[in-house]
Amino acid sequence: MPRIALYTLIVCLLATAAAVVSFVQGSWLGIVWVLLAGLTSNMTWYYVKRARDSAAGGKSVTG
Fold it and tell me: Is residue 5 a contact partner of residue 47, using CB atoms and an 8 Å limit?
């Protein structure tokens, strides 16, 4: 797993934890954390797929 994918995974987990804490405290700011978690989750999958495809000698993810 590439380093950038690990970083985005860590940010995703932290954003998820922050969303849970925000909602437990009754704050609607948790919605922002949920959106950030979704974004970083997609980034993680993108970088993992990109690394797997380049290691297999396949086509680029972007075309």
Answer: yes
Q: Are 3 and 51 in contact (CB under 8 A)?
A: no
Query: Contact 41/19 with Cβ under 8 angstroms?
Result: no
User: DSSP per residue over 5-60, as a string?
Assistant: HHHHHHHHHHHHHHHHHHHHTT-TTHHHHHHHHHHHHHHHHHHHHHHHHHHTT---
Nearest to 46 by CA among 31, 60, 32, 56: 60
Please write the tens of the pLDDT for every residue from 8-62.
999 999 999 999 999 999 999 999 999 999 999 999 999 999 999 988 876 665 6
Q: What is the pTM of this model?
A: 0.82
